[in-house]
Amino acid sequence: MKEPFLGNPQNTIAVLQKYNFTFQKKFGQNFLIDTHVLDKIIDSAQITKDDLVLEIGPGIGTMTQYLAYAARQVIAVEIDKALIPILEDTLSAYDNVMVINDDVLKVDIAALADKYNNGKPIKVVANLPYYITTPIIMGLFESHIPVESITVMVQKEVADRMQVGPGTKDYGALSLAVQYYAEPYIVANVPPNCFMPRPKVGSAVIRLTRHKEPPVQVKNEKLMFQIIRASFNQRRKTLANGLNNSPEIHLPKEVITEAIESLGKGASIRGEALTLQEFAALSDMISDRL
Asked: What local confidence, expressed as pLDDT, does residue 218 receive?
C-alpha cells in the first residue's frame, strides 16, 4: 500500500483538475488539505486494525486513505456521484475500502455493521457538511445503531453547542441530546485555511464517545425529548409557557406548572436553566400525569 498522499493542497488540486471536478454547493463540499489535522482526527478516533470505520462524505478520498491505513475495513458513503470515479482512482491501492454512492440518511448502517463487523460497534469518522450535521449525528444515535464513537469535523459553534452545560447561550436541545447519548470532547479547532474551498466559518473536530448506559434513566425517552424541544423552541418564554404551547404535550397549564414546581423550581424558570437530570425528572412527572 502506498503512503497517504492527498493531505496536501498540490495533490488535491491535481486530482480535481484531472477530473475537471466542480464543487457542489448543495452538498456543502469543503475538502481537508492539512496533514496535521488528518493525523489528529485518526489519533483521536483511536482507530485500530480491529475496527470497521464508517466514513461519511469521503470527498476525493483524502481522509479515507488515512483511515484505510489504520483500520481493518472502511465503508465510505458518498452522496455525490461525480466523486465516485475519483474515489475509484485515489483508493485503488487499498483493498479494505468499500465505497457506497448514497445518502447516508438512507443507508441501513445496522445491516452493514451486522454483515461486516458481526454486529459489533463501529466507529464513525466524518468531515460533515454543515447544513446536515445535526440530522446525521442524531440519526446515528436515535436509531440505536451499534456505534462506539463518532469523530467528526463540524462548524465550531455546533461543536461548542454539543458540549456546554445549563445557563449558557449555546446550551439547547442539541447539547442535551448529544450528552444523553455520548461524552463530547473537542479535539481541535480548525481554521478555514485548512480546507479547499475555504468555508466562511471556523471548524472543530469533536469526538462523541457513546455511553454504555445513558447518564439518566427516564420512563419515556421520546416524551423527554419532546419536552426538551418544546423548552427551547421559544427560548424567551418560560418553561411552563413553552410546554403549554407545544402541540405534542397535551396537558393543562396548571398540571405542567405543578410538575415544574415539584422539581423545586419557580414557575418562571426557563428551559435553559435545567440539567439533563432535571429534564428526566420532569419528563417522568409529566409521564405520570398524562
From this structure: 97
* Pairwise CA distance, residues 198 & 87, whole Å: 22
* Residue of 123, 73, 118 whose CA lies nearest to 100: 73
Closest alpha carbon to 153 in 22, 47, 38: 38
Q: What percent of the chain has pLDDT over 70?
A: 99
C-alpha cell at 7: 493531505
Beta strands in the chain (DSSP E): 31-32, 52-56, 73-78, 97-101, 122-127, 147-155, 182-190, 195-196, 203-210
| Cα torsion 158, 160, 162, 166: sign | negative
How does residue 272 score in pLDDT terms, banded at 50, 70 and 90?
A: very high
Separation CA 277–CA 275 (nearest Å): 5
Residues 89-101 have a mean pLDDT of: 97
